[in-house]
Amino acid sequence: MNLFHISAECYPVAKVGGLADVVGALPKYQNELGHDAKVVVPGYDNKFTNENVFDTVHQGKLRLGQFIFDYTVLREQTNKLGFELYLIAIPDLFNRPNVYSYDDDTERFTAFQIAFLNWLTETQQRPDVLHCHDHHTGLIPFMVANCYNYQQLQGTPTVLTIHNGQYQGWFGFDKLHYVPDFDRSRTGFLEWNGIINPLASAIKCAWKITTVSPSYLDEISENANGLENLLRYERPKSIGILNGIDTIVWNPKTDPMLDHHYDLKNFKAGKAKSKKFLCEQFDLNPDKPLFTFIGRLVGEKGADLLPQICSVALNYNPGEINILILGSGDTGVENALNGLKHFYPGYYNCYIGYNEKLAHIFYAGADFLLMPSRVEPCGLNQMYALRYGTVPIVRRTGGLKDTVLDIGDGGFGICHDQTSVHDVNYSITRGIDLFNDKKHFDEVRQTAMKIDHSWDKAAEHYIQLYQSLTY
Ligand code: GLC
Questions:
Q1: Is the pTM here over 0.90, yes or no?
Q2: What φ, ψ does residue 282 adopt, rounded to 5°?
């Protein structure tokens, strides 16, 4: 099958969160199954764009209301990512280092989607499926079905994957004219609660909806930032498919970001070396259990509670545990986490920022990974942790519920029900007990490392879904 994944992020081209990891891996596995999966992302002014070589495959102009922009479609020359990668360069809008958080994000991502469809139309391409990811590409299903300019693409199946239903890309009707001409009686397909809502539009117009875990599909019927009723209504065309992880990138035996490699046979020694490195770097005690948090410091991930979780845990267990945090996000949380360093020297530290290499070393060197998420559509970090023999401590929600079984049930993780300081601290106490029961701890880590979360199954599942739309 010939298909396009269209997304704002793709690892290693541009990454903010897990969306990038999925879009950087799924197409590779689909191609291994004999399909032709391509990826299209905006051309940002970042390291990847500047350090790689591209061919210009198409140039054109796009209209966004009263504005006209030049766009260029660039193709990465080597296919080294395991798929054909296309960047859509719209210099006026994307010649900037970051993916999101500019005042004109509506203009940027609407123009990106228009440029993509213009390109397909102008070069007479007719893919089998268009697979859109999150709200940044949410207008595509509507535009394919309704815009006069894209009549040639009408009837092309569209699939929307919801990686995070909290963000929906709303904008006002004053920008309705950004959308290329269509029969105005169809306007309702763009709208939800009185404004244009790209995610809602995609939920209405895409042929199939997927969420990144089965439990998340159940949860968003109850809690989806205002889209609950719509999601309930569209449930018959929705399905939850658990993400995989890229087991080539994430392999403690070969990971180029690690100095000390290991596998199931020598994991104790391998992990201990990475732990020693981290403890030296961050002035921690290598003999005590090391609890970490890796990720965006935002409320969804429960990060606002981290400062309190850390101080309670470190006060209750003085000299008995280490906590090490890696992430960036909410400035208040960043400051509070930095502030804690002075109170618990030798047992607490944090690295505020995004650092992919350090994240890999954290997974290898840590004993436990904290994920007190309020919302976790899938969560990849717990799967990385498992593969690296690090025990996840998770709140039972979304994909965490689908992937982590508690040690009390013969599993390989520690689970709690609430995103609360109390619940997380109770789990930390259970973690300390596990750490001190060396035999059990080793068994749990071995079980964790054996779990197969590779993409093979999910990649096949998506293909079956596309096939149900095309044959
Ligand atoms: C988003 C979700 C996360 C999921 C990822 C990839 O970042 O918050 O739970 O794992 O997308 O689908």
A1: yes
A2: -110, 15
